[in-house]
Design a protein that fits this description.
The complex is a heterodimer of chains A (about 280) and B (about 475).
Chain A: E1 2-11, E2 14-20, H1 22-27, E3 33-37, E4 44-53, E5 58-64, H2 68-73, E6 81-82, E7 84-89, E8 100-106, H3 110-122, E9 126-133, H4 142-147, E10 151-156, E11 163-164, H5 168-177, E12 182-186, H6 189-199, E13 206-209, E14 225-228, E15 231-234, H7 235-238, E16 241-243, H8 249-256, H9 260-275
Parallel strand pairs in A: 8-9, 8-12, 9-10, 10-11, 12-13
Antiparallel strand pairs in A: 1-2, 1-6, 2-5, 3-4, 3-7, 4-5, 13-16, 14-15
Helix pairs in contact in A: 5-6
Chain B: H1 18-21, H2 34-41, H3 62-70, H4 74-82, H5 88-94, H6 101-104, H7 116-129, H8 141-144, E1 147-151, H9 155-167, E2 170-174, H10 183-186, H11 195-207, E3 211-213, H12 224-229, E4 234-237, E5 241-244, E6 257-259, H13 260-269, E7 287-291, H14 295-306, E8 311-315, H15 327-336, E9 339-341, E10 344-351, E11 357-370, E12 376-380, E13 386-389, E14 392-395, E15 399-401, H16 404-408, E16 434-436, H17 439-442, H18 447-467
Parallel strand pairs in B: 1-2, 1-4, 2-3, 4-16, 6-14, 7-8, 7-14, 8-9
Antiparallel strand pairs in B: 5-15, 10-11, 11-12, 11-13
Helix pairs in contact in B: 2-3, 2-7, 3-4, 3-7, 4-7, 5-7, 9-18, 13-14, 14-15
Classes of the chains: A alpha/beta (about 280), B alpha/beta (about 475).
Chain lengths: ~280, ~475
């Protein structure tokens, strides 16, 4: 049992939970993830680690409501307990002094990139961050990422805040005009794919954090297999970070959609129950 | 006393009707009634020098528990059985008795051996249904000051932990998943091993004073060396199976191609057969091919039937004689309607244009000379390619050792296969104070083999700690 100490709504559908998990906090490093599981009927869901406090014994996760499980997690309040919180899992992000690092993040993945930017900054890099959102109302943690960034660029798809357009536009400009040692791109799969395509012609090594469907998350089931450089890898133990230029993006996108019909069934059932005044979550 | 007349026929096991059971997850074998159990127990000759015991990896006192059973002294039967086996309700269901105790029963020379496994199950189930069986007393306080960490709460870990607890040691089990039992929970299906039975056995181990820490991935959450820093005097590693093996053929990463580990974990551990009441989904469609011929392949095929598949194939490259699955499981699968495509090997998985598997292209095979495993080597018959239309493929070829513990524990010697090198008789590894057993030491094997390793390691850990 893991107590929730804080809950914050970063946007209407992106939520933060700060959870008491001293053993996980003691080991957590940038780029790793945890598996959260709650209730007899619940799924095991991987969530990237957004922050930790070893002294306090807490780990912070940020997630977006996308389906049944994340909508259930969205019901949690401070003081509630989560049944299972397992981690830290996966390999940490490689942190070295690469000179100048560009951290690109889209949507809820801003939370994932903050500890990476922090670690890159601490390793002596010049950190340039690009954060992309659909619209102004969804912008969060500009100050927090800004704290670890020498330069910060915000984009919105509709131009309601910061630069209008996609994250790949400022990324292209930076790659053209600066000497960039490494790009880290984390966000929706399609954003990572286009970030990879953007940096590839420049030959700048680009790391992405892949988020395929997982079940156990500890290297036992093989659900999270991805193809990288023509080889099958398990994102949970070989990743989640991989060389973006070697990832088979179309396969990843296809595998992420494997359960769309079931997800719809599950979601409809849940919403039906909720509107009926039944017990939710 | 008059010489007992030999009864060469065993009492048959009542089972659910094949047609019916192929569509539900209820237990297939229903278990003996009291009268059936006593009738079967009565066949035992109570040999002066019982050979059956030699066939048991944990040396259960078989004639003793059978004697008590037929005298209707159930508490004594339970005591005799559990003295050597902490998971009898599990073993009575999933041990390959025909290759172990029953194989060595003297009746086997003339007819059917005593159905030891079924009797074990009867006694264990009676115990689970009955409150208040006296437990073996924990021993001396001297031993109680020593603490042992057991990594992984599957069959090897549960056995090692319970043996050590019975000796009076302080034992903590660290489990990576959200529930204890390992393969007994995520792998073996409900219809062969009900999960409430597994949980009851886990609860028994806890009742001996074993502390259980869930959600702890040793090698990630905590390192083996940190366990020593925390004050543990010995560590037993039994983390179980690692990454599944695949066929290495084109199309293997298409949607609806599962490893058996993933398929069974979804179905058994996460209860995807109750989707959408449970949140974890699984997809089977109308036609399913399972690749492999072991018990895991049988379990996968029978789960697929129960999830509504109309046609389920076992695709195996050798012939019936080489199938590694237990005969009982093979027969059960056949009765339920699983179709065996023997001497058949997949060439590639074909896609439907949407990223899903549509068919498997196979070769016909023939058997050549025996290979290093002693089995006749399967050879492709060129030009025999044919397609089987499928909606789901399940690959049941075994597993590789999980690298997490070896890669985070300096000084642990490995074998060429990547398993942790151990002394078979004791489970000792190359590092002082660390023992290992189960799949991590041997590669994929049976539940009872893992239990035997847990038992031997517990004995040796005791010897080591007494000398220390």
């Amino acid at each position: 049992m893991y107590r929730i100490l804080e809950r914050e709504d970063l946007t209407p559908t992106i939520h933060l939970l700060k959870i008491e998990a001293p053993r996980v906090a003691r080991k957590a490093q940038a780029g790793q993830f945890v598996i959260l599981h709650h209730g007899e009927e619940g799924e095991r869901i991987p969530l990237t680690i957004a922050d930790w406090d070893r002294a306090e014994g807490t780990v912070t996760v940020v997630f977006m409501e996308v389906g049944t499980s994340t909508r259930k997690f969205a019901q949690f309040k401070a003081g509630d307990v989560v049944d299972d919180f397992v981690g830290p899992l996966g390999k940490p992000t490689e942190i070295e002094n690469y000179g100048t690092v560009v951290c690109v993040a889209g949507g809820f993945a801003i939370a994932t990139i903050v500890p990476i930017a922090r670690a890159m900054k601490a390793a002596g890099n010049r950190v340039i961050s690009i954060m992309g959102f659909r619209t102004k109302d969804l912008v969060f943690w500009e100050d927090r990422l800004g704290q670890f960034s020498d330069e910060l660029i915000v984009t919105t798809d509709d131009g309601s805040y910061g630069r209008k357009g996609l994250v790949t536009e400022p990324l292209t400009e930076l790659l053209k005009t600066r000497d960039i040692g490494r790009v880290i791109a984390i966000g929706p799969t399609i954003m990572m794919k286009f970030s990879a395509l953007t940096s590839k012609p420049f030959g700048v090594k680009t790391i992405v954090s892949l988020n395929p469907i997982m079940v156990d998350g500890t290297g036992m089931c093989g659900a999270c297999r991805v193809e990288v450089g023509g080889e099958t890898k398990l994102a949970c133990v070989d990743g989640p970070d991989f060389d973006a230029h070697l990832v088979d993006w179309d396969l990843l996108i296809s595998r992420q959609r494997a359960y769309l019909d079931q997800e719809k069934t599950s979601d409809e059932r849940r919403q039906h129950h909720c509107s009926g005044g039944g017990h939710c979550g | 006393m008059a010489k007992k007349e030999l009864n060469l026929n065993r009492v048959s096991m009542p089972k659910q009707d094949p047609q019916e059971r192929a569509r539900n997850f209820g237990e297939v074998s229903l278990g003996y009634s009291k009268a059936q159990a006593i009738a079967e127990a009565d066949r035992c000759l109570q040999c002066l020098k019982p050979t059956c015991k030699d066939g048991c990896p944990v040396n259960v006192d078989i004639p003793e528990f059978i004697k008590a059973l037929r005298e209707d002294d159930m508490p004594e039967a339970v005591r005799a059985l559990k003295a050597k086996n902490s998971l009898p309700a599990v073993c009575g269901r999933v041990c390959p008795q025909e290759q172990q105790c029953e194989k060595l029963c003297v009746l086997a020379r003339k007819g059917a051996p005593v159905a030891i496994g079924r009797l074990e199950r009867y006694v264990a189930d009676w115990d689970l249904a009955t409150e208040g069986t006296p437990e073996p007393q924990a021993a001396t306080a001297v031993r109680g000051r020593k603490r042992i960490a057991v990594v992984g709460a599957g069959p090897a870990g549960l056995t090692c932990a319970s043996d050590l607890a019975k000796m009076g040691y302080g034992v903590t089990m660290f489990e990576a998943l959200h529930t204890a039992g390992g393969v007994l929970k995520y792998g073996i299906p409900e219809f062969r091993l009900p999960k409430n039975i597994v949980q009851a056995e886990v609860d028994y181990v806890k009742s001996l004073g074993v502390e259980l820490v869930l959600d702890n991935v040793v090698g990630r959450t905590e390192l083996v060396d940190e366990l020593f820093e925390e004050g543990f005097d010995a560590v037993f590693l039994s983390p179980g199976a690692g990454a599944p093996m695949f066929l290495n053929i084109p199309g293997e990463n298409l949607n609806n191609v599962y490893s058996a580990n993933e398929f069974l974990t979804r179905v058994n551990l996460m209860k995807a057969y109750l989707f959408p009441q449970y949140d974890t989904p699984v997809k089977v469609g109308r036609r399913v091919a399972v690749f492999g011929g072991g018990n895991v392949a049988m379990d996968s095929s029978r789960c697929a039937l129960r999830l509504g598949a109309e046609e389920v194939y076992i695709v195996y490259r050798r012939s019936e004689a080489e199938l590694p699955a237990r005969e009982e499981e093979r027969e059960n699968a056949k009765e339920e309607g699983v179709i065996f495509k023997l001497l058949t090997n997949p060439k590639r998985l074909l896609d439907d244009g949407q990223g899903n598997v549509r068919a498997v292209e196979c070769y016909e095979m023939e058997l050549g000379e025996p290979d290093e495993s002693g089995r006749r080597r399967p050879i492709v018959k060129p030009g025999t390619e044919f397609e089987i239309e499928i909606d789901t493929a399940i690959i049941a070829l075994g597993t590789r050792p999980n690298p997490v513990i070896p890669s985070t524990t300096p000084g642990l010697e490995l074998t060429r296969q990547g398993t942790i090198a151990t002394d078979v008789a004791t489970g000792r590894t190359s590092r002082e104070g660390i023992w290992c057993g189960g799949d991590m030491a041997t590669g994929a094997a049976t539940v009872i083999d893992a239990m035997g390793a847990g038992r031997r390691a517990a004995t040796d850990i005791d010897r080591y700690l007494r000398q220390k």
